[in-house]
Design brief:
Elements (H helix, E strand, L loop, with lengths): L46 H4 L7 E2 L26 H4 L5 E3 L7 E4 L13 E4 L4 E4 L39 E3 L4 E4 L2 E3 L12 E3 L1 E6 L4 E7 L8 E5 L4 E8 L2 E8 L4 E4 L11 E5 L4 E6 L7 E6 L8 E3 L1 E2 L2 H9 L5 E5 L4 E5 L5 E5 L10 E6 L19 E4 L4 E4 L8 E4 L4
Parallel strand pairs: 20-24
Antiparallel strand pairs: 1-27, 2-3, 3-4, 4-5, 6-7, 7-10, 8-9, 10-11, 12-13, 13-14, 14-15, 16-17, 17-18, 18-19, 21-22, 22-23, 23-24, 25-26, 26-27
């Protein structure tokens, strides 16, 4: 595994990425993804986080995502149209990897279509405030030749067994009990090579990246699912919940980590691919923000205690400003649960955060309330493509902060969360 980190603005990584940007490298596991210290061991919080002012946007990263680009010249077989930038803007989200580093961090992976073929994994470590590249992209068996990746159309794996990069939307998750980054389905529709000039591929065989070994493994096939599915980890059950999507219909599926098995539940309406989900652990609800279309928008909610029941499109108030922001960025909102505040927080663009408070009474019939909170400071730059942040906006619960990246050459921004 390769650790690449440098100070902001340094231009080139302090550790040589590769003598040949097209070669696959093996290296030791970096300290950044070591297991957290034992209980009782003091954990040093960086000053940039410790000194955050409540509800004030602040730059916190000490290097840039672009500093850890495996192919800065964008002339590798996997560079495709966008190069590394596709990991950020090509319909991709991310996850908060709570057990990586000392304070957790943001993991990014993906590309998709003809934007980017690189399938390397990245981590922004909140303990060091540095981006690192945890694995190397699959390269053509003939160096520089984008047509020789040996794509298996049944599994959507390249010749080395690594999954083809895809648009991740909100389809990826982190399993803290096994320290794995997972995608329950693999596949996309590249409009050019690698490996399949005639079209894309889709596979129900999910993929899991193990941080400790920097290796990929398979997940059992998910039942009756295709395409882009909203995926969240449920800590109380040590399970993944996936809102399945099959030609407009769906329903929940649950992956039990202990038994490595799937359970599919009754058919239900599927959220659009641009939807974003999060779990309310207090009320045991799977909440999906659906703001992609100008009609039939709102919050789709599933009762996880009764997963066979049809979802409820609940009534929400106060969300007009959020909806306007969401329309501008194709519904791709960042939505996360904040345990310390007992409510959700959402962000799309600009200065404001949007807090969502579930009702105290019957969540099916009573109003869910959006509260707009202005955040001081200079906000993150708008996303580089008209798509909002989705999972690139995350919450670190133990630190009480939200943080986000919107462009490969921009810093990570953070805000200490406070509800009025």
């Amino acid at each position: 595994m390769l650790l690449v980190a440098c100070c902001g603005g340094c231009g080139t990584p302090s550790t040589d990425v590769s003598a040949d940007a097209g070669s696959v490298m093996d290296a030791d596991v970096p300290d950044s993804d070591a297991s957290p210290p034992d209980a009782g061991t003091p954990i040093e919080v960086p000053d940039e986080i410790r000194n955050l002012v409540p509800n004030t946007w602040t730059q916190i990263s000490r290097n840039l995502f672009s500093d850890v680009d495996p192919c800065p010249e964008r002339d590798c077989g996997y560079s495709a149209v966008s190069g590394q930038g596709g990991v950020i803007h090509a319909f991709n989200g991310g996850v908060f990897a709570s057990q990586e580093g000392t304070l957790g961090g943001l993991t990014l992976w993906g590309g998709g279509h003809n934007s980017y073929y690189g399938n390397e994994v990245y981590l922004f470590d909140l303990g060091t405030l540095l981006w690192s590249r945890l694995s190397e992209p699959t390269v053509g068996q003939t160096p520089g030749d984008e047509t020789t990746f040996g794509l298996d159309l049944e599994t959507c794996r390249f010749y080395d067994g690594h999954p083809i990069a895809k648009h991740t939307y909100d389809t990826v998750a982190y399993i803290p009990t096994t320290r794995q980054f997972v995608t329950p389905t693999v596949g996309d529709a590249p409009s050019a090579p690698p490996g399949n000039p005639d079209g894309g591929c889709g596979s129900p065989i999910g993929a899991a990246f193990n941080y400790a070994s920097a290796s990929w493994s398979d997940l059992p096939p998910i039942p009756e699912t295709q395409g882009y599915v909203v995926t969240e980890f449920d800590q109380s059950r040590n399970a993944l919940w996936v809102w399945r999507h099959t030609y407009g219909t769906g329903g929940l599926a649950r992956y039990d980590v202990d038994t490595t098995s799937w359970t599919a539940y009754e058919t239900d309406t599927a959220p659009p691919s641009h939807a974003t989900g999060a779990i309310d652990p207090v009320h045991d609800l799977f909440v999906v923000a659906r703001f992609f279309y100008t009609d039939n928008v709102g919050l789709m909610v599933k009762d996880l205690a009764n997963p066979d029941e049809h979802h409820v499109l609940v009534t929400s108030t106060g969300g007009t400003a959020l909806e306007e922001d969401a329309y501008e960025f194709n519904g791709f909102v960042g939505l996360e649960w904040v345990p310390s505040l007992g409510r959700f927080v959402a962000w799309v663009t600009g200065s404001s955060l949007y807090f969502l408070t579930p009702p105290e009474g019957d969540w099916r019939t009573e109003e869910w309330v959006w509260t707009t909170v202005h955040v001081d400071g200079t906000p993150p730059t708008p996303p580089s493509y008209p798509l909002g942040p989705a999972g690139k906006f995350q919450v670190a619960p133990d630190l009480g902060i939200a943080f986000v990246i919107t462009n490969r050459s921009d810093p990570v921004y953070a805000v200490k969360l406070a509800f009025p």
